[in-house]
Structure formats: structure tokens, C-alpha cells
Amino acid sequence: KRGSELRNDPLTEAELRALWDKHDFDRSGCLGQAEARAFLDDVRRKYGFPEKLPTPLADKILGNLSEDDSGKVSWNDVRQLSGKKKHTELKKTLRRARGQLNQQFKGKKDESWGAWLNKITESSEAEVVKTDPSAKDVPTGEPEEFVLHALRADGVVAPGGQVLTSLIIEVRVVRGDPRRGRENSRDSEALNEPYIEHDDTGAATGASDPCWEKPAKFTLVPEKGMYVHAFICDSGMFGLTPLADIVWSLQEASA
User: Fold this and answer.
1) Of 80, 131, 233, 241, which is most buried, counting CB atoms within 10 Å of its CB?
2) How many whole angstroms separate alpha carbon 164 and alpha carbon 200?
3) 41 vs 57: CA distance, rounded Å
4) Inter-residue contact 216 to 199 (CB < 8 Å)
């Protein structure tokens, strides 16, 4: 059985509010589809569900939270997760999803769990946009797959002479240039900013001159004003520590 036990207690209102403020970056009082999916991505981690949710399942969970059919999620919708009813519903859904994923994975001897999960998640995300281009907050247009494969980096050094443990590249798609208004776009606060999509390369081989075998990939419909923000991070016991970063517009990244 893959995955640890799911969280027993509901998220507190304070925990939910912190996640809400992180993702309601335009302060509109509602989360649009991309914002709501990113919000739910953080929630499932809080519940101890490390696997990324296939988009149809994520949208079903968000639909059950929303009190109307506007396609948006309000704070009043979200705060219900601090109560026993919605917490129990979400936990049952995640437990059922984990069981289904484990069942589907049986017999896939030629693939790793992570590689197989990435494949079905990416295909489901592309399919939901292709089959429902009229869905609220989903821009019309064809989804595109973006792949960032960093082969190696030279001379990576941790601040203060710390020992590097496990280097990964965290790649995020964000709205607006993350360098604007910041003296340092690679500080830890930058990792707390809202994002539209994200993936990482997994751990590198080597420390000072790391190499990565796995690319970071995501599928989305490009929009004006989207940027790619990539961090080289040390993923130690205290979470991600950004060491270096680079920013491209989505058009530059796809060129």
C-alpha cells in the first residue's frame, strides 16, 4: 500500500485562511478554477496525500465544496472544511482515490509508481480541457505540454557552508513576473507565492555538480502574462531551501 495514513482532524480555520490568502492573490474574494486547484493541491498535502490529484477528481471535490454553480470557490465554501461533515467527506474521497490508484497500478511492472502517476495525471489534465473548452474560467485554445529538463548544474554551493542533502529543481508557472517588486526572487518567501501549475525534477545525483534524469513537466493552456519560475532547491528535513533561480516568460520557455 502506497502513502501514509490520512490526517484525522479537520484543518483549522487558521490553517485554511493561510492557504486561502496564499492563493487568492488578486484578493477578489473568490478562487477561480486555476487558483482553486492550486489551493486543493496544498490541502491534499496537509491531509498526507502526496500524490497529485487527477484533474477530474480535483474538480469534483471543488464542485462539492461550492455552494453554487458559478465555477468559483468562496471563503465560506472553503471554511466548511474545518467542520466534521466536509472533513469526513474529503477524507473518504482521498482514501477512495488512493485505493483506486493502487488498484490501477497493479501489474505495471515496467513503470515506477511516480512515473505512472505522472502519466495518468498529465493525460487527464489535457483531456478535461480538450473535452470541455466551454467550462467556466478555462480559456479556449489547445493545451500544450511544457517540459524542462535540466541536465546538470555546476558549482552549487549552500549558504553558510551548509551541507547539501538532496537537490531538486522546483518549476512553477505563475501569473506576472515574480521579479517585479522583489529584491530577491529566490528567497524562501518566493516559494510561498501562489502558482498555477508546478512540478519538480526529483532528487539529483551528485551535490556540488548535480545531474537530473527526470524532467519537470506540466500541461496547460498558455495565457498572456504567465511566467515560468525555476528554483534549484536543497530539499532537506526543513523543507525546500532555494539556492538559485531563473525566470522566463512562458513564450520564452516554449521557444
Assistant:
1) 233
2) 17
3) 12
4) yes
